[in-house]
Design a protein that fits this description.
Helix content is 80%, strand content 0%. With 279 residues, it is an all-alpha fold. The chain has one domain (2-278). Helix 9 (159-185) packs parallel to helix 11. The longest helix has 28 residues, at 189-216.
Length: 279
């Protein structure tokens, strides 16, 4: 029951994130290119009601995701966030009257089937983070948080680089949220505050990365990269960072591969791409 509820809440959170991406991307593409990878990009966007509506959906999605992570393993919940792509597909069909073909159906079935398989193969709950895992998360924040400014300094505001940065950043937020849940459960208020600040910093910088990616690259290329990393990286790293291991390793690995294939198929769909930037 907890596993099913975790997947359901992950799907709700993914739907809200999909709506958030859809509304925010529309405004991001209307901003001057010289704001790429700058805080001024977000400062311009926060003045636009449509972007703020998308931000509100994203803010609401985060606590739903946190509850899902408190009920189920990060190795299950994060791949289930792929339902956001299915929501974008539905928006593309119902709102924009896009055609659904074998690609779209295959991608949707791959994600749904992979999540169902992970319900059996993934750990039931996220194990406690190891000391090494906690330190790895803390040290990686030193790269994730300043990522937009490091990329701008390196002259890498291109769509591929910023999409990768966005995917890694949102993956960090997913794992950081799991750490936040652990601290709350242990009533460790110092750790709760520290990880809360970390999640906030990572979310701010990753939002800059994501808006720059959608500003400079077609959604059919940006969405698969960012979504794929956000979904699969936490699941793949969880056994290395926490005291947990898959219940059925072969099925677990196979399900992650199938989920990744589903992301590539749906993320590259014109129906999904149009919904991501025009709904």
């Amino acid at each position: 029951m907890r596993t099913a509820l975790a997947v359901l809440l992950a799907a709700v959170s993914a739907s809200l994130y999909a709506l958030s991406t859809s509304l925010q991307a529309l405004e991001a593409r209307r901003t001057p290119s010289e704001t790429a990878l700058r805080s001024s990009l977000l400062l311009k966007l926060v003045r636009r009601p449509l972007w703020l509506a998308g931000a509100a959906a994203g803010v609401l999605a985060w606590p739903v995701q946190a509850v899902a992570l408190s009920l189920g393993s990060v190795a299950l919940v994060q791949p289930a966030m792929g339902f956001g792509l299915i929501v974008l597909l539905v928006l593309g069909v119902t709102v924009l009257h896009e055609h659904v073909g074998a690609r779209e159906l295959g991608g949707a079935l791959a994600i749904a089937g992979a999540v169902a398989a992970l319900g059996f193969a993934a750990p039931k709950e996220t194990g406690a983070f190891t000391t090494t895992g906690s330190w790895a998360m803390a040290l990686s924040l030193l790269v994730v948080a300043p990522a937009p400014y490091l990329l701008r300094w390196a002259g890498r505001a291109d769509g591929l680089t910023t999409s990768i940065a966005a995917g890694i950043g949102w993956a960090w937020v997913g794992l950081g949220t799991s750490l936040l849940d652990d601290a709350l459960g242990a009533r460790n208020w110092v750790a709760l505050a520290a990880w809360g600040i970390g999640v906030g910093l990572a979310s701010w910088s990753t939002l800059i990365d994501e808006m720059t990616a959608l500003q400079t690259w077609p959604a059919t290329r940006s969405v698969p990269v960012a979504f794929g990393l956000e979904m699969l990286l936490p699941a793949a790293l969880a056994p290395l960072l926490t005291h947990e291991s898959p219940q059925q390793t072969a099925l677990f690995v196979g399900a992650l591969v199938v989920a990744g294939l589903g992301v590539v198929l749906l993320g590259g769909s014109k129906a999904v791409a149009r919904a991501a930037v025009a709904s």
